DNA sequence: TGGATACGCAACCATATGGTTGCATATTGT
DNA sequence: ACAATATGCAACCATATGGTTGCGTATCCA
């Protein structure tokens, strides 16, 4: 990590890996999804910087950041008088893998259906 | 702006592909995520069948199904006195691709950071 | 036909959620 | 020290959300 603002690993109170709904819920709010997106391609940003691009107040942004933190998607740390928030891509990976898994289940279900049709279907 | 001269696009009640937050919000409710998961590996199910596995009332399940429909994740149809709901995997694919995209942005940001460190960093 | 099954609709309720404003605190820089 | 900046905290508010119950309707089947 190049950013000295990021504190040491603080793994508390964040969503467990086996809680995909929490991550999806966090991403399900347009303002929050935007924050995640911005952190994704701009790197760690302060609350003030994040508020610049948003249409809501600083406090609203702060609340969203806390929600994202609860979901394990972002992590914050202080740098002087600023609080810097950074993306934490692990949970995004979790969400991806979850979608992959149920998509695969869907494909398997389709295959089972095909097998059933071939077996029992119209002669 | 929609030019009135252009052929009108089919207006859908369901979420547009470019509305990932809506899909994530739909998946962000544990009960709904469970419904999606069940439809994924069990195939189309009636409301009664879906209610069997749920801890909430049939009406709650119905509401969730409507929410999922709004997000474009499921589609319902009648079969006699039953209403059958089926998964609609396209939106899941959209969500997957969205996560892929921002994950990739994150990777590119990391690479930019590395390039910056190599260029300007401690000699 | 009549009962059982499957569902839709509407009203209602408690809480969660997203947003705001006001004010206090800490940090920076002159 | 002082003003400006960046943030935290708490109260407050309107609406959305998830859940329930009650009741009416359609369909299946004996």
Produce a short descriptive summary.
With 123 residues, chain A is mainly alpha-helical.
Report what the structure shows.
The structure is a homodimer of 123-residue chains. Chain A is mainly alpha-helical. Chain A is built from 5 helices and 3 strands, in the order ααβααββα. The radius of gyration of chain A is 20 Å and the shape is elongated. The interface between A and B is medium-sized, with 33 and 34 residues. Chain A binds a DNA duplex (30 and 30 nucleotides) through α4. Chains A, B: This is ArsR family transcriptional regulator.
List the helices and strands and how they pair.
The structure is a homodimer of 123-residue chains.
Chain A: H1 20-27, H2 30-42, E1 45-46, H3 47-52, H4 58-70, E2 74-79, E3 82-87, H5 89-120
Antiparallel strand pairs in A: 1-3, 2-3
Helix pairs in contact in A: 1-4, 2-4
The first copy, chain A, binds a DNA duplex (30 and 30 nucleotides) through residues 29, 31, 46-48, 56-60, 62-64, 67, 78, 80-83.
Pfam families (chains A, B): HTH_20 (PF12840)
GO molecular function, one term (chains A, B): DNA-binding transcription factor activity
InterPro entries (chains A, B): ArsR-like_HTH, HTH_ArsR_DNA-bd_dom, WH-like_DNA-bd_sf, WH_DNA-bd_sf
The number of strands of chain A is 3
User: Main beta sheet of chain A: strand number and arrangement?
Assistant: 3 strands, antiparallel
CATH superfamily of chain A: Winged helix-like DNA-binding domain superfamily/Winged helix DNA-binding domain
Largest interface: A-B, 33 and 34 residues
Which strand-content bin applies to the residues of chain A?
A: 5-15%
């Amino acid at each position: 990590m190049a950013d000295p603002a990021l504190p040491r690993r603080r793994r508390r109170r964040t969503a467990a890996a086996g809680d995909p709904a929490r991550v999806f819920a966090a991403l399900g709010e347009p303002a929050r999804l935007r924050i995640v997106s911005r952190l994704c391609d701009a790197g760690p940003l302060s609350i003030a910087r994040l508020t610049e691009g948003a249409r809501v107040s600083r406090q609203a942004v702060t609340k969203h950041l806390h929600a994202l933190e609860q979901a394990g998607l972002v992590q914050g740390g202080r740098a002087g008088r600023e609080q810097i928030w950074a993306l934490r891509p692990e949970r995004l990976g979790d969400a991806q893998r979850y979608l992959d898994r149920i998509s695969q289940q869907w494909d398997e279900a389709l295959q089972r259906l095909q097998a059933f049709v071939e077996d029992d279907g119209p002669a």
